[in-house]
Request: fold
Amino acid sequence: MSSNKQYWVYHERQEALLCGQHALNNLVQQNSFSPGSLAEIASQLDAMELNFMAQNNEGGVSSKDYLKRVAEGSGNVDESGNFSIEVLRSALLSKFNLELPNIRQKGVGDKMEVTEIEGFICNRSAHWFAIRKINDRFYNLNSTLERPELISHFKLAAELEALQQAGYSVFCVVDSLPPPCSNEAMMDLGLPQYWWKEQDLLRGKSNAMTRADDPWKNVGSGRRLDGKRPAAGAGAVGDISQMTEEEMLQMAMAQSLEQSGGPSSEKSYVLTDEPADGPGAVKIQFRMPDGTRAVRRFLGSDCVGVIYEFVGSKCSRQSIELRAGFPPKDIKSQKDATISESKLAGEMIHGRYV
Reply:
C-alpha cells in the first residue's frame, strides 16, 4: 500500500548505446554503475572464459576454438558498449549481493504473485530496460522514454507476458533492492536531472519537476537561493554532490597541486607514430576505460610507459589504471621496462578510470 511520504523516481535517459548501464542504475534507483566499471567486469569475464578454454581445450591457446574466440573479441561487451547479461548479473552481485535470474527459471517466483517482485530487467537484442516497484507502484523506466510510465498492478503480469511474447527475456530481483528515494540525502546518490517527483508523475503533469528544476533543492547546501555558488573566498564551500564530474576533477587537481607545491614531476614518455608490421613490432589489444576496443602496434623496445601515453591520448588524459594477465594485474610498476621485458606482446590490456 502506498504511503503519504514524498517519493522521487530515478530515470536515467539513453546515452549512446549504454542502455544496460541505465537499466541497472534505474533498477537500483541510483547512479551506481558507470561504463568503465561494467567494461572492467566484461574484461574480467572474458579473461576467465579464455583461461577456461586454454585449460580445457586440446591445444590450449593454440587450439582452433581458442583462437576463434580471441578473434571474435569480447563476448561480454561490443564496440558500441552493449553489455551481456553476465556482466549485469556480476555487477549486481558484486555491489549489492543481488541475484538476477530469468523469471521463467524454475523456483523463481513460483510461490508468489508477480506484483510481489521488486524489480525486472528486460532485454531483446541489444536493448535493456528496467521496471521497478516504488512506493508500491510499478514504473517502466525504459531509458528511451521521456519520463517514467506507471504500470498498474492489474496490468503488470499481462505487460511482462506481452514482452516475452515479443521476444524479450525478462530477469528479476525478487527482493532486497535498495529502498526508493524518500529524502534529500538519498537523492545525492543519483544525477539531479534524472529525479522525478512521483506526485507530479501521478498527476500527469506535462511539466513534471525533476530535482534539477526544484527551486528548494539547494537550500542549506552551501549555494545561494538563486542557484549560484558562493563566490570564492566568501567563507562558504559549494556542495560537492552538486558539482559536475569536470568541476570535481578540476577541484581535485587544484588541491593536488596545492599539496605538492606544483605540477607533478612524474616521468613523461613519448608516443611515436605506429610502427609498420615487421621485425621488432608487436601488437597489443586494448579494452579502453570507456568500454571500447582498440588494437595498436608498438616496438618491443618501447617502454610500457608509452602504452600509458597511448591510452591516455584516447581518454582525454584522465587518470587511468591498466591491467594485464590473468588474473589482471596493475602494470604501473613496469612503466620503465620494455614491452618485451614485461611480456605484454600480444596481450589484452584492460583500462579503467581511477
Q: What stands out?
A: The two ends are 42 Å apart (CA to CA). Residues 28 and 178 are 6 Å apart (CA to CA). Residues 219-239, 256-264 have pLDDT under 50 and may be disordered.
